[in-house]
Amino acid sequence: MNISAKAVKFDDDSMWVELSDGRALGVPYAWFPRLLNASKKQREAVEIGRFGLHWEAIDEDISIAGLLAGRRDQTIERSRKRAYLKTSVTEVEMSNQRYPKGLDGRMRDGDGEIRKKRSDTLVRTLRAEYGDEVAKGYRADTKLGTVLNREGLETLDQLLKKRR
Known about the structure:
The protein is of the alpha+beta class and 164 residues long. The protein has helices at residues 33-37, 40-44, 64-68, 74-86, 89-98, 123-130, 144-151, 156-163; strands at 5-10, 14-19, 24-28, 47-48, 52-55, 60-63. The longest helix has 13 residues, at 74-86. It starts with a strand and ends with a helix.
């Protein structure tokens, strides 16, 4: 089924896209800096196409598939990745010092967000960080999500506490 945009409306801080299947998506301008910085007149000059939205004056294209997947402006994500790859180890270490452990003891990423172990983290990575006793009885190439599921746990913290 191809879902397309039927109409687009704008309020003070969001774009609202009415879809052909009856749903409406509210998308904050902050997800798309060109829309955020555009004038009201420029925003309203949207062209609705079969697969997405286009703004000629601000050179912005947004796919409906991307909106449904919750993707933000991909040019920003690509530039962040390029900038990260260009940083030296020393700069990365220095940025970690700018965001030390919080009062709760959890490390923070470069943007200040709390680091979370993803469910696709391998047991070998956890053992390197927390010791060989983590996920005892599981192979090193097992994913954290699998271990948590089999143990009936929800978080890495619960797994670490169970180890004690």
